[in-house]
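Hello Y.,

Per our agreement to keep a running log of every chain we model this quarter, I'm adding this entry. I've kept the format consistent with earlier entries: sequence first, then predicted structure.
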Amino acid sequence: MSELLQASLAVTTVTALLTAVVGGFVAYQAYRGYRRNASRAMLSLAVGILLLTTIPFVLKQPLVLLSLATTAEAELVAQTCRIAGLLTVLYAFTGA
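Predicted structure for the entry above:
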């Protein structure tokens, strides 16, 4: 693998990790809002943010790094989580 490709993969992984960490922090803040106000909308928002940011990283990275799935299969899992996250956030805004 060329050095440029390795550097690109490293930057992509670090960026994905940063997204997962910041998303986890934002979800934690929404969860605190849920506990403080007993608002189902805040709980749904927290779950949606986790599904959008943190869970895809946590699922995709081990699948690819441990060769348990192809890159396309792992991306399908991640995209499915993101869709579920968007639907959960939509529910938080409209139905909770």
